[in-house]
Amino acid sequence: MSFSSIYYSVVLSSKGYTALARFAYQTCAAAHDRFGRVDYRRYAGFRVGGVVLLPTGASAGFAEWENFLQEAAFRETRRNAHEGRILDFALPRAVPRALLLPLAAFTLLPFVALGMSVRLDVECVTASDDEPNPHAHAWLAQRVLERDGFGLKARSWNTLFRRSGAMAGGTCAPWLRPG
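RE: above sequence
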């Protein structure tokens, strides 16, 4: 029997969540945002690795995690801002640990090809059946990454995450579609 899981949402500051808190969660780190302190360091032992995926034309400097974090986490200023998209998905247990991050990155390439910048992290916790539970956490930008930082929001991307869009209909990798 196979099992797959996919979850997608928006980082909404109006709900008390920020990109900085999301990045802390994904990277198993601690952070302090305007809503308080979050600390996910206790999960560091499960973390497989992470990477920043950049679209063509983006400055290579943003591939450095610190630069990307600084630009992405502090770009939004509105109190009710949408600070990015969340995409979490399960990975096959049969995939060797060393290939989990490349597989997850490959899965997100259609979004990067459309111009989205992505912070991807993979972890492998122990599931309730004592087997590995590899899964990926991704933060997808809602703004176009230009040479000097994030520019305007690409509102056309919103359709990709509606029920009739990519997640249900075709832009993303076929194995990422809800079943």
